[in-house]
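From the pipeline queue, job 12 of 40. The input is one protein chain; the requested action is below.

Action: predict structure.
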Amino acid sequence: MTRPITVGVDGSPESQAAVDWAAGEAVRRGLPLRVVHAWHWEPLSTPVPNSGDEQAKWARELVRETEQRLAASHRDLSIVAEVLDAEPVPALVRANEEARMLVLGSRGHGALLGFLLGSHAQQVLARASRPVVSVRAPEDAKEGSADAPAQTTAAREAADGEVVVGQQGSAEDSDAVLRFAFEAAAARGVPVRAVRAWSLPPIYAYTPGSMRLADEAGGLEPYEKEQLAEALAPWREKFPEVPVAEHVEIGSGGQVLLSQTARAQLLVVGRRVRRSPIGSRIGSVAHAALHHARCPVAVVPHD
């Protein structure tokens, strides 16, 4: 079964930007598109007459109008649009499990908004088993600084650019993240920029074995460069047509990664799949990217 690209829609500018991005990505990858709106009516203590019927009608019209708009502009794209009768978070988590990726709208610069509000979006990201892509609304893309003007999502997709990916840990740790980045770059015909941040370890952080490897590599920074090159090697071989730039820098992972996104069409970051006593988390690097990157951000879960 071919997994579709699934996008959540709620009628907001953020979700419409997500729909447009998802449709373009489905065309590039030759995949079907699934448009969903998650809605479940629960009677209130002081119900408004026929409010459930009106909301259900609005939801059906929303997905139908979205499907019609996409069909008019993407005639060869296979599209399915449906209303999911369930609470948003569990409905989208299930939709993510059935998809190649789930695409949601975001305003960035604060709590994730758009298709889901407040902590709901973070719950979906933290519980998703497959990639989730967060897409900015065009209005937000206008908030650039004078020396680095922002572009809309459409403008970024049309312009020359690159796919930026954060690489952490060992080659095995980053396989899923690098796979997503190279596939996205190959579909677009653009380079990959692979970024690895590192910091000076506490005196007890490195084992004697790892320090020996660092010494053999000529020091900590050359060791980090060697680790990045090792992680990239199989993907360079699998995607020889994709140019690759490597960037290794000492500093905070989120800050180093964001500093390399000036020409990014897409930023790809990883999220380790793990549970904590206070629930699922998305990690500091993914958190920084989702809140501050001006391009779409793909969060890829990995072991």
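Job complete. The first helix runs from residue 13 to 29.
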